[in-house]
Amino acid sequence: MLYQTKFLISLFVTLIIEIPVLFLMLRFFYKNKKISVRKIISVGFFASALTLPYLWFVLSPYILSNYYIYFGEVFIFLVEALIFNQLLELNFKKSLFVSFVCNFVSFVIGLIIF
Predict the structure, then answer these.
(1) Which of 2, 46, 50, 105 is most deeply packed, by most CB within 10 A?
(2) What tens digit of pLDDT does each residue of 21-77 get?
(3) pLDDT at 72
(4) Residues whose CB falls within 8 Å of the CB of residue 106, separated by 6 or more in sequence, listed in order
(5) How far, CA to CA in Å, does 37 sit from each of 22, 23, 82, 97?
């Protein structure tokens, strides 16, 4: 399978996992009804669509393979937390936790699937 095909599958799976987790975290864990469903979906899509290509195509040539997964996941987690902080107007502590949960669930399911 082509590397680009694997990326597109990974992006699709990431979006299918992380957007619902983001929604559930905001609606049920934090009980935030102020943020519209459309905004949650849009920001979730934007965050994943922005960060995953960096992990797959930009960072990979510059990081040793032994540390790639750790550095890459931490990078994505922090960037997505910043996106959630700015675009969903969550305080930074909440945005860090939401980003961590979204990425952790996605990472674990990704390990199981792939």
Answers:
(1) 105
(2) 999 999 999 999 999 999 999 999 999 999 999 988 988 787 777 777 888 889 999
(3) 87
(4) 13, 14, 17, 18, 21
(5) 10, 8, 19, 19
Give the distance, in angstroms, between the CA of residue 70 and the centroid of all CA atoms in the same chain. 14
- Measured CA distances, 57 to 19, 52, 61 (Å): 22, 8, 8
Phi, psi angle pair for 59, to nearest 5°: -75, -35
pTM: 0.92
Q: Which of 56, 66, 67 is nearest to 14 (CA)?
A: 56
**What angle, 0 to 180 degrees and rounded to 10, lies between the N-to-C axes of helices 65-87 and 92-113?**
140
**Contact by Cβ (8 Å): 47, 80:** yes
| Terminal-to-terminal C-alpha distance of the chain | 13
CA 94 to each of CA 20, 32, 61, 63, 99: distance values in angstroms, whole numbers, following the listed order: 17, 12, 32, 29, 8
- Under the banding of pLDDT at 50, 70 and 90, the label for residue 107 is very high
Cα dihedral 92, 101, 15, 62 sign: positive
